[in-house]
Design a protein that fits this description.
Elements: E1 3-7, E2 10-12, E3 17-19, E4 21-25, E5 28-33, E6 41-44, E7 49-52, E8 54-59, E9 64-65, E10 68-69, H1 74-83, E11 86-94, H2 101-112, E12 119-125, H3 131-142, E13 147-151, H4 161-171, E14 177-181, H5 185-197, H6 205-208, H7 212-229, E15 233-235, H8 241-252, E16 257-261, H9 263-267, H10 277-280, H11 292-303, E17 309-310, H12 319-322, H13 342-351, H14 358-372, E18 390-400, E19 419-429, E20 432-436, E21 439-440
Parallel strand pairs: 1-6, 2-7, 8-11, 11-12, 12-13, 13-14, 14-15, 15-16, 16-17
Antiparallel strand pairs: 1-4, 2-3, 4-5, 7-18, 9-10, 18-19, 19-20, 20-21
Helix pairs in contact: 4-7, 7-8
The structure holds N-(aminocarbonyl)-beta-alanine (URP) and zinc ion (ZN) (2 copies).
N-(aminocarbonyl)-beta-alanine binds at residues 60, 181, 285-286, 313, 315, 334-335.
């Protein structure tokens, strides 16, 4: 068996940091400690941090949406992931209306199989709900899909409150969990219609027609549904202080709610929409970018442990695709790339600015998503018996984020020009070096990860 000793690094876990060596044999970590006597090949990683491979539990690769298909398929998306230290993505297998869950799952397997440079798992996004779909739920669990996504908005995807309630109730015997895109479709739809009727068609109206209370109302409603079902739940891509306050209130009332935010809701704000269309449209995502007060509230919530994961909602489109909405902002494909830049951003603007500790960064990017999505301790921790998914992170040095060095086919990054400190140097995926000093050195070696029920 191929053995490798990572020597002299500082291991990061959700509980702290420690100097220790890591012995890898084949795909697994076989020992963690010091002074091994081993015939393994050695790699000196002194001065470096070693994180458990990062997990991005919110990506949309090869998704047909808004009359187009996302720019990043599994090939490009997972190369972008690996370059950002991500060794596992949890993508949204999406049931298009009229499809069965089995069709949707098979469809996503075909997209990902032999094209993924990191490991991958799937949530199942449900956009049709009826008895036949309910009867398919056990088959999803048998195939390692244990988390489900619902949308309260987007005509092609949205489920009614009743359907969400029924889904949550139906998942309880299996230990499944539902994540929700929380926005009030009725208010937003009417505000958009009014704006277009007034001739307010430019991209700046995207955020103006999605005020913060439309997220907060939907969060509150989703949490009421979870309360009625007595089921755990996840608010995905939380963007507002008002939404956060609903989550904190519901927790006090005993609702088991987990929450995710994304770097764009921590680091960017709606002033980005003041730019002319070609630049401003790059920042169109839903929920939209918010205000500085929302950024601040979300950073504080991370510091206080009130959120659970930081994912990216990587949903990339090119400038040409964004131009579909040049004359009508409601037709701009929603989403932005992010899987490649998350770790450097969270280290620079989180850890280095003392908004987060290093163990918290590890919790939000590795351990919590592994636990929440049933992959722990195979993933998310540096421990004997775990997959040898490891990120060698150089805490020194500085860089500037630029799309020209990113792997997304969108051709841009919303974080262009932002300075970073430290960065991902090498990435091991199940013991194999897949990324080294700016280069993908091994492609398409990702495997599907079957998941157990959530356990955060
Ligand atoms: O704008 C976004 N976030 N697009 C991706 C789909 C979603 O809503 O998560
Ligand atoms: Zn969403
Ligand atoms: Zn999303």
């Amino acid at each position: 068996m191929n053995k490798l000793l990572l020597k002299g690094g500082t291991l990061v876990s959700a509980r702290g940091t420690k100097r220790a060596d890591v012995l890898i044999s084949g795909e697994k970590i076989v020992a963690v400690g010091k002074r091994f006597s081993t015939d393994a090949r050695e790699l000196n990683v002194s001065g470096k941090l070693i994180f458990p491979g990062f997990i991005d539990a919110h990506t949309h690769f090869d998704l047909a949406v808004s009359g187009t298909v996302t720019a990043d398929d599994f090939d490009h998306g997972t190369k972008s992931a690996v370059a950002g230290g991500v060794t596992t993505v949890v993508d949204f297998a999406t049931q298009y209306q009229g499809e069965t869950l089995t069709e949707a799952l098979n469809n996503w397997h075909m997209k990902a199989f032999a094209n993924s440079s990191c490991d991958y798992a799937f949530h199942m996004a449900i956009s049709d709900w009826n008895e036949a779909i309910e009867n398919e739920l056990p088959a999803m669990f048998e195939q390692g899909v244990t988390s489900f996504k619902v949308y309260m908005i987007y005509d092609a995807m949205a489920l009614s409150d009743r359907a969400i309630f029924e889904l949550m109730t139906a998942l309880k015997p299996y230990g499944g969990i539902v994540g929700c895109h929380c926005e009030n479709a009725g208010i937003i739809g009417k505000l958009q219609e009014n704006a277009i009727a007034r001739g307010e068609t430019s991209h700046v109206y995207h955020a103006r027609t999605r005020p913060d209370y439309t997220e907060a109302e939907a969060v509150k409603r989703f949490l009421s549904i979870a309360r009625a079902a007595d089921a755990p739940c996840i608010v995905v891509h939380l963007s507002t202080k008002a939404g956060l306050e609903e989550i904190l209130r519901a927790r006090e009332d005993g609702v088991a709610v987990y929450a995710e935010t994304c770097p764009q809701y921590l680091l960017l704000d709606d002033s980005a929409y003041h730019a002319p269309f070609d630049v401003g449209a790059r920042f169109i995502c839903s929920p939209p970018l918010r205000k500085a007060k929302d950024n601040k509230a979300l950073w504080n919530a991370l510091k206080n442990g009130q959120l659970d994961t930081v994912s990216t909602d990587h949903c990339a489109f090119t400038s040409e695709q964004k131009r579909m909405g040049e004359r009508d902002f409601t037709k701009i494909p929603n989403g932005m790339p992010g899987v490649e830049t998350r770790a450097a951003l969270m280290y620079t603007y989180g850890v280095k600015l003392h908004r987060l500790t290093l163990p918290q960064m590890c919790a939000y990017l590795s351990e919590n998503p592994a636990r929440l999505y049933g992959m722990y301790p195979k993933k998310g921790v540096i421990k004997t018996g775990s997959d040898a998914d490891l990120v060698i992170f150089d805490p020194k040095g500085s860089d500037t984020i630029t799309a020209s060095r990113c792997h997304s086919r969108s051709g841009y990054t919303p974080f262009e020009g932002m300075q970073t400190i430290g960065g991902v140097k090498k990435v091991f995926l199940r013991g194999k070096l897949v990324y080294s000093d700016g280069e993908i050195v091994l492609e398409h070696s990702g495997h599907f990860v079957t998941r157990k029920k959530y356990s955060l």
